[in-house]
Amino acid sequence: MARPKIALIGAGQIGGTLAHLAALKELGDVVLFDIADGIPQGKALDIAESGPVDGFDAALSGTTDYADIAGADVVIVTAGVPRKPGMSRDDLLGINLKVMKSVGEGIRDNAPNAFVICITNPLDAMVWALREFSGLPHNKVCGMAGVLDSARFRHFLSVEFNVSMKDVTAFVLGGHGDTMVPLTRYSTVAGVPLPDLVKMGWTTQEKLDAIVQRTRDGGAEIVGLLKTGSAYYAPAASAIEMAEAYLKDQKRVLPCAAYVDGAFGLEGMYVGVPTVIGANGIEKILNIELSKDEQAMFDNSVNAVKGLVEACKGIDPTLA
Ligand code: A3D
């Protein structure tokens, strides 16, 4: 059987890291696409030359021609611009919406059977727009955010509790932005929910609240440190986990920006929810019950995403 084909649209910081991880994990052959001629070709060749050292079998190539992504099984989209210090994700909307139009059409014309993972910000609005421009089925187009947000939450919790992050699970809902909703009662250390750990004296409510806030601000913290762009190692690792779940039909339960129509009382919109990812893409959405407070936070997040989608429609009337 031929190796799967993974197309990466955008060969910047995240795109290059995605290519490296996909090759190291032998998920398939990798095609890096970018409009900046030379960058995708250079990164592909550089990573391919690490193959003999790391011992992976994967072909890597770079291109500026959409025809080269033909027949891709997975497409991961990072094309666009990242944040600089002082910018919010929403400031990227106008410029990245135009990028989603050309990328969506490129996917529609060349890789209509792919499972598409969008990473470009502002995430929930961009994945919606990408789906509209590409016309692919909703279950085959999703956005990466929840895996990263919950990985950040898990990292902070494992440091606070001084336990292996393998034993920390975390649950984050809502849009990828300042309104995201880390759900403490569904987040655990080896199955013990965080509120119980507060009762057990492992941490205090104040410390837990601070960790929740740090999770919400996780992207801005990295932007503030790097100054020239945004996070890329953890975002790439998170999208690779989703791609692997699809390619290997793992039925992983992962939070991601998925099309929700019915669950959580929502009508046809993209927002971060717990999903099952397998060979059929987004196979299921876990319609969990929320407490009054959680519902209020989720509603706030949903409204923020709706506002961004409306802004997209205002910029590009073909989306209205
Ligand atoms: P960067 O290193 O600038 O790479 C973006 C690449 O996109 C560049 O190489 C550009 O040349 C290329 N590009 C621009 N326009 C086009 C186009 N029309 N077609 C193809 N390629 C194009 O950015 P990055 O890799 O650090 O970040 C990429 C995106 O991911 C940004 O929008 C970030 O805000 C976003 N991001 C999202 C998360 C999430 O958790 C959702 C996390 C981190 C970054």
UniProtKB/TrEMBL annotation:
The keyword Metal-binding does not apply. The active site is at residue 176. One of its GO terms (molecular function) is L-lactate dehydrogenase (NAD+) activity. The keyword NAD applies. It holds the Pfam family Ldh_1_C. GO terms for biological process: lactate metabolic process; tricarboxylic acid cycle. Keywords: NAD, Oxidoreductase, Tricarboxylic acid cycle. Its EC number is 1.1.1.37. NAD(+) binds at residues 10-15, 34, 96, 119-121. InterPro entries: L-lactate/malate_DH (IPR001557), Lactate/malate_DH_C (IPR022383), Lactate/malate_DH_N (IPR001236), Lactate_DH/Glyco_Ohase_4_C (IPR015955), Malate_DH_type3 (IPR011275), NAD(P)-bd_dom_sf (IPR036291). Residues 5-143 form the Lactate/malate dehydrogenase N-terminal domain. Substrate binds at residues 83, 89, 121, 152. Residues 148-306 form the Lactate/malate dehydrogenase C-terminal domain. It catalyses: (S)-malate + NAD(+) = oxaloacetate + NADH + H(+). It comes from the Bacteria. Catalyzes the reversible oxidation of malate to oxaloacetate. HAMAP family: Malate_dehydrog_3. Belongs to the LDH/MDH superfamily. MDH type 3 family. This is Malate dehydrogenase. It comes from Pseudoruegeria aquimaris. The gene is mdh.
